[in-house]
Design brief:
The protein contains 18 helices and 17 strands. By secondary structure, the chain is of the alpha+beta class.
């Protein structure tokens, strides 16, 4: 998600109560869904990562044709914004759409289709294609330049020291994220527990990145694997107290964030690197070089933590590989349906499952998709029941958004299985598959 707001100078240290109020004041009675949808950008002629110069021109043309404003980081064009939505470049030139939150799935689909249709048409003039898969299939981080955005450059310098696959995460991966509202503290914590519990199964079903470095990687989702090794105590499901203690609340999440080492903070237009020297809790207690923590600093810091399920002004569900539009829409439809169900019964299935178990299942999902069993869970069968429950709780006019997913899960398959069964084994065969009806 783009960060436009710089922290303000503050003479008084940030109080813990202000952080809590940030979440309390974010509770909403209405429920909307915000889609963030990334695609890998590659050259159409050799499948290598597209270069920034071409992406910059695509964004300029897109902004001109849509009447959107161009977004800069210093002198670097990083995206465009208009109509409550934005397009932007991730660190490795992945192309991201952040859509204004909507109530209806049809509105999400229509807006997404319109924006990517225009972006795709413009991209053709520059021999660029936006691929619906979870990782760049040919180029690796070793030959993908970081977009010259201050935030990305600091992350690129610091994260690899603590997360061995951070360069892969930043430069190569692309995902689908759904943002949902929460009504109260109790509702937020219950949803986080539930979404974190089922996340390995959704990671496994939406696994869509088996090709990396122009060959089979041995993983159904190399993207999911890379995100688990992004940085010490800031990725996967690091807020263990929230997941393992029955009495969890906002404090359980906040305290986990406070103990994550800081990368940087902002003053004016300047980013001040901290290189993980202090945690945010330490920054709150003693400041740094005459600067004291602000709420804006906390919000920025929390966005530099990368759990599968993240709490901000909304709950961000972040554990899916990038998909074709029908499957991306099924992500939105699934969560809309499943969260309308009485999911206490589903949560009860996890009464003997702790955060360590969820981490193990996340690794199994990254490697095997849905072809794994753990304790009393058969991944394929349990995921099928989840989708059936979601389908039953959708309105009649929205049920069709789950048709593609139900057809696939009915055969105990994940998204990657379709391309593997079609003989996809390289970047070229992947691109060819994604152009077929089966791959769209």
């Amino acid at each position: 998600m783009l960060n436009y707001k710089n922290a303000k100078t503050c003479q008084k240290p940030l109080r813990y109560s202000q952080i809590r109020e940030y979440y309390e004041n974010s509770c909403k009675k209405d429920t909307k869904f915000g889609l963030e949808y990334e695609r890998a950008a590659v050259n159409s002629f050799d499948f290598k990562n597209a270069n920034y110069d071409h992406l910059e021109k695509i964004i300029k043309n897109f902004a001109h044709m849509k009447g959107w404003g161009v977004l800069y980081d210093d002198k670097t064009i990083i995206g465009a914004m208009g109509e409550g939505s934005s397009i932007s470049l991730e660190p490795g030139c992945q192309f991201e759409l952040s859509l204004e939150a909507k109530e209806k799935l049809e509105d999400i689909e229509n807006n997404t289709r319109e924006i990517f249709s225009l972006a795709d048409r413009i991209a053709k003039f520059y021999n660029v294609e936006f691929l619906c898969c979870g990782i760049t299939p040919f180029s690796t981080y070793k030959n993908i330049d970081i977009v010259k955005k201050q935030r990305y450059e600091i992350m690129a310098q610091n994260l690899p020291e603590y997360g061995r696959l951070a360069p892969v995460m930043m430069r190569e991966t692309a995902g689908v994220q759904l943002n949902i509202d929460y009504e109260s503290e109790k509702d937020a914590i219950k949803k986080i527990k539930f979404l974190a519990s089922i996340s390995p199964f959704l990671t496994g079903f939406y696994a869509n990145s088996p090709i990396r470095e122009n060959k089979l990687s041995g993983f159904k989702s190399f993207r999911a694997f890379a995100w688990k090794y992004t940085g010490k105590n800031r990725c996967s499901l690091f807020y263990k107290d929230l997941l393992d203690k029955p009495s969890a609340d906002f404090d359980s999440y906040i305290n986990a964030i406070l103990d994550v080492p800081m990368l940087f903070f902002e003053r004016g237009n300047k980013k001040i690197p901290l290189n993980s020297q202090i945690t945010f809790r330490e920054f709150m207690s003693r400041g740094h070089d005459g600067h004291f923590a602000t709420l804006e600093d906390y919000i920025l810091h929390s966005s530099l933590c990368f759990p599968d399920i993240r709490l901000k002004k909304c709950i961000e569900i972040r554990n899916h590989d990038s998909q074709s539009l029908p499957f991306a829409m099924s992500v939105a439809a699934f969560y809309k349906g499943i969260l309308k169900s009485d999911f206490d019964e589903i949560l009860y299935r996890f009464k003997d499952i702790n955060s360590q178990d969820l981490d193990i299942m996340g690794h199994l999902a990254a490697r095997y998709g849905l072809n794994f069993k753990f304790k009393n869970f058969d991944a394929a069968l349990f995921t099928k029941k989840l989708f059936e429950t979601a389908y039953n709780n959708l309105q009649t006019d929205e049920k069709h958004y789950l048709d593609c997913a139900l057809e696939l899960i009915g055969s105990n398959k994940c998204v990657s299985d379709r391309m593997l069964e079609a003989g996809v084994c390289s970047a070229g065969t992947l691109v060819d598959f994604l152009k077929t009806d089966a791959g769209r």
